[in-house]
Amino acid sequence: MGKTRKYLEKNQAAFTSILAVLLAFIVVGVLLFSTGRNPIEAFGYFMSGAFGNTYNIANTVSRVIPLLIAAIAFIIGAKCSVFNVGIEGQLLLGALTSAVIGFGLDLPPVAHLPLMLLTGALAGGLYALIPAWLKVYRKVNEILSTIMLNYPAFFFTHYIVLNVTPLEGVIPATPFIKESARFINLFPGTRLHAGIFVTLLVVLFAYFLLQKTSLGYEMRAVGLNKEAARFHGIPVEKRMMLAFFMSGCLAGLAGAVEVAGVHYRYLDQFSPGYGYDSITVAMVGLLNPIGAIFSATLFGALKTGILDMAVFTAIPRQLVTLINGIVVLFVAAKSMIQNGFLRVVKGKQSDAPEKETA
Amino acid sequence: MATILEMRGITKRFGDVLANDRVNIKVEKGTIHSIVGENGAGKTTLMNICYGLYHADSGEIFINEEEVEIKDPSAAIKNGIGMIHQHFKLIPAMTVAENVMLGNEPRKNRFFLDIDELNGQTHQISEQYRLAVDPESLVEDISVGIRQRVEILKALYRKANLLILDEPTALLTPQESEDLFRIINRLKADGKTILFISHKLKEIMQISDRVTVMRDGKVVDTVEKKDTSEVKLARLMVGRDVLLKTAPPSKKIGEVILKAENLSAESELHHRQVLNNVSFEVRSGEVLGIAGIDGNGQTELVRALIGLQKLTKGKISLRGKDITHLHVKEMRDAGIGVIPEDRLVEGLVVNFDVQENTFLGLQRNKPFSKNGLLDWKAVASNAEQLVEKFDIRTPNITHPVRLLSGGNQQKIIVAREIFHAPDTIIATQPTRGLDIAATDFVHDELIKQRDLGKAVLLLSLSLEEIMLLSTRIAVIYKGEIVSIVNKDETTAEDLGLMMLGGTYEHIPA
After folding, report:
1. Is A212 in contact with B374 (Cβ distance < 8 A)?
2. Domain ranges in chain A?
3. Which end of chain A is less enclosed by CB atoms within 10 A, N or C?
């Protein structure tokens, strides 16, 4: 068989992901066309809105930051068989905690910002220990428990902002954090801040942990086959607790970075669902830290690109929700797309998608 | 004689693998026709096509000399074909009769199950073929051998004239196999046709009228039983001369390496006694075989020996050192290597690639890990060595293990555990589902390790394997070691009886 064919087959997962995204765009294009709009023109505005000039690129990247950190949070869990759907709640608690440290303490910048990020991460991590313990030692399905635990986090932060921390002005928010606790802005006039470097560190950390350490190897083994892991002396329960904790920490960190780099305070309901979007980002990125960079960029671009499109073409901004939904749909139907993809690549259908080769 | 089934020019391709290549087979009515071949020779694929589970890419099927199209199993049943799969398809919580009638239940007043009719009909078929099955017992309460008869009952109830039995003796004791053969002969006497799939040559020679040999997806030959022999069949199957072998006896038996004293354990769920005062020792240079029927405590024993099963009492020592309370990892590091019962569940992470699997359990040991960091270069060079030394057929060491054949998967486990185990190897069902070549390989490796002075503990459901490899044999029954004997002082029949607790009664001939 041809070299290209082998290459395509070997990287089928990646191509399937790309295909899912392309299909989503095509479907949206057809929808636009059928309602009398010009999809090509719309796409043009979308691209220029997201990447058209350095200003737009900077804004897109600033959107990527929370998505990417939160996606890594999901990936670290998922690789170890922990499906943390509670990232949203952990992120809110992380953000609030870090904001309190940010406005409540007076410290030199070298200590203040790191301390703030650390406490934010810790808040998320500790909150994640609840579903972690329930899952590992009480066999409670973590998908359900984490979804449910998003609500207490949401209402708790809401309550604290309205009733406990001092209110300044009419917007429900904490006071502004001190200058010493802020990320510097990298591109005046945009929201791009130095948190991008923390984000890249997080990606590198995840990659390094999973691929280069014994611990990461053990976590991946647990994720793929608990019985084999246990049989070979890997402490399955401990690894899952740890993965859950790390996942929660990164979720909390994502919230803290938003506070330190964008809002400079905890703004009630500031998250447009980063925690939920991060799951899509992680999935489209094939649960691969490097893959997540690309998918987070795509979803970040969706958020900024849509704005220009809405301004210039009278297409409502809510289209972004639609695109998101359709991408999710196609990613969920991945095995279907994958089968189709393989059929085209191999040029033949078969009843057994996988058969022993040797 | 009339032909009941003929398959002509059957070709079936899975991806790049040609599973059946222009296969022709003709089965005469009222005969016992065997199909032999190694794993992957295409026997099961062919039978699945015949039963409508797969569709041939090309070729024709004739039943009673009329061409038919078998779209699905229900079409096969309509054509009088019944298949007894290797893994039974029964519902444990239902009675025998309910299982037999499932999907075809007799009814009263259209809506109500006619239980008397249900039990009566089942009883009648069971009597007719002297299957000795009680229609009202629950499937979960009956033994493997009887479950198999229930499957046969099911096929008979659906008026099957041609019964396909896929590796029917794989899970049976010698006694149970004998019973099965008696039943098969009775079915034949009654005019039924049997298609018997197996790779055990001894039983093929015992039971068949004709034998079709398959190799690499092709029919090599079809011969009359009276014109052939085990050796001839083996040669046809493998394509070269095969020595029907016996392992050389232990050379030098040394000091005690692994010692178990009064191990007792309870099941987690119901606190049922699963191990009861199990004691034995394995010496350097010997293989201790543990024979027993599935579910008599073998799984728990292995788990206890590697620290996964809590003991209520007892002591395990390795070279005189007490290792009873060590953690799994420490036990393994102390020198115990394990070839687990189920390679896909316990032995491998199938979604890892070859090299990742070659150091599973060693991920914190030198040279693979230093200060918690993996040394992928060391991993790769070790993996390359093992692939070379153990002849693991894989395109490269980053090939996913799930895409390898069962034999090559098993070789990875054997390679890793042997490499890792300085003292003791516990081999559980080490050749389950492997073909002749791979089985030979694993057996040779175990004997080699024995002769290097390691202690080998072998647990197998195959008495043949136990007899072949063991120096001494212990029989486990209901969590107890009933007896430990020297291999030379016992017979398969005696062992079979002990495996059944000495209380087995044959069904009447």
Report:
1. yes
2. 64-296
3. N
